[in-house]
Model the fold of this input.
Amino acid sequence: MKESIKKLEQLGEKVLKDVEKGENPNLDIPLRTLSNVKYDKKTGMLTIGDKSAKRYFFNVAHAKKFMQTMMVAAFTKELLEEGIHTSLRDAFYALKRTFPNSNENTFDEQSESDPIIVDIEVALDILREQLHLSADVRGRVVGDVVIEDRGDSVDWSKLGSGGWSMPSNVEEIKFKKVKADFILVIEKNAAFERLHEDKFWQKHKCILLTTQGQAARGVRRVIQRLSSEFKLPVYVLTDIDSYGLYIYSVIKRGSISLSHVSDRLGTPNAKFLGLTMDDIEKYGLQKFTIKAEDTDIKRAQELMNYEWFKSPDWQRQLKMLMQKKIKAELEALSGRGLKFMTETYLPEKLKKKEFLD
Done:
């Protein structure tokens, strides 16, 4: 927290020095554009480049954003100093006001304040969670793990059928005990509940985690922390469609929009466990497939061009999806029996180490 406050103070001091020198106050904001995002083969993650843009106070096109940036910076400094957290939505309302004798607002919509928060995040190399700003909660986890969360001891193995709901901000969580051989990340909530009810995590000594769709930042941070701090392998289980493959890609490589924090949100050692196009044939799921829409085919074509999907194995999977024009959900495994995923599919794949990287 002290480091975050120091960086915010340095931002303010820089602007103050510009004023004292009689110069046009400005902020240097790294560009979050596709042209400034690179794939780092060495780290296996997406990273932001070195291109940036100046935001000037005495510039008609920049003045409002400059003011908004300073407002958000001051607001987050207050949060840190007072030791309180708030949501992105609350932050928008706390900062929204009308200038005296005008119809001009500081912020009109949250779609204005959210990008400014990311600007500060990338400019100062601070996670928004470290600024005490949180988004909606999404994602659940269960396993033989004990954490300390704001002074409370939480045992992930003793939270009933629901598991632990992961908050947006997991920076202050301390892992007190972690007994697991690997982390199994599941796209679908229904598959998580099936595996949890069957005590898969106990039988196979793993941490069971569901992203409930695209992984939220807090979820990705939990995965990254568990993997790096406890040297745990990560296996990702999603639908075999372009959306599921992209979920895996974001967990492993990071995302274009958050390339500036890939080192804290990406988990490069993650491997894809399934479903695969081969699984449809191997496990007799042909009757449980779904027709791929044009958007699925188009997205698969885009994935084929990503450098990290260029391996022969991934190219083969994507080509099969496009040629057969079918996809399959995790729920398709239930067509072979409600315990098929728990007792046959996953144990076989884990034993044979049938992963895609």
Summary: The chain has a mean pLDDT of 93. The chain is about 40% helix and 20% strand. Residues 140-352 form a domain with the Dna Topoisomerase Vi A Subunit; Chain: A, domain 2 fold (CATH 3.40.1360.10). The first strand starts at residue 26 and ends at 30.
